Amino acid sequence: MSTASVGVSSRNVTLRAGGLTFKGGRSADRITGALEFGGGADKVITSRSRKGKAYRRRLGPAFGPPYRNGRVVYPAARDSIPRFASLWVQTARRTIHEAIEEVG
Questions:
Q1: What is the dihedral of CA 49, 52, 53, 59, to 10 degrees?
Q2: Which of 22, 52, 87, 89 is most solvent-facing, going by the fewest CB within 10 Å?
Q3: Number of neighbours of residue 9 by Cβ within 10 angstroms
């Protein structure tokens, strides 16, 4: 499920994420954990009817089996954090070297 949307005007392009809402007014951020880490079909959850009465039901196979390491965010962070750290170190090193050259 994608919660991203794009707005285009004559002067700008706007990207929005996480703004999707479902019938009944629930926002998509309430299910992001299940989307990222899955959920067992036998997991019992508490839901509310349209009239507000609480009831318990099984999650079902909608989100697939539990996945400990995540499906999107954790692997993306695992790949990108070392690159960002490397870029930060290179930028800091270059800034220091340029400052030393200006003084000397």
A1: 40
A2: 52
A3: 7
3 state SS of 35: helix
Other CB atoms closer than 10 Å to residue 39's CB: what's the count? 20
Examine the pLDDT at 96 and tell me if it is beyond 90.
yes
Judging by DSSP bridges, how do beta strands 44-48 and 54-58 pair with one another?
antiparallel
Geometric angle at alpha carbon 32, from 27 and 37, rounded to 5°? 160
| pTM greater than 0.85 (yes/no) | no
Coil, helix or strand at residue 56: strand
In 3D space, the residue among 4, 22, 6 whose CA is nearest the CA of residue 14 turns out to be: 6
pLDDT in tens, 4-35: 777 777 777 777 766 666 666 666 677 778 87
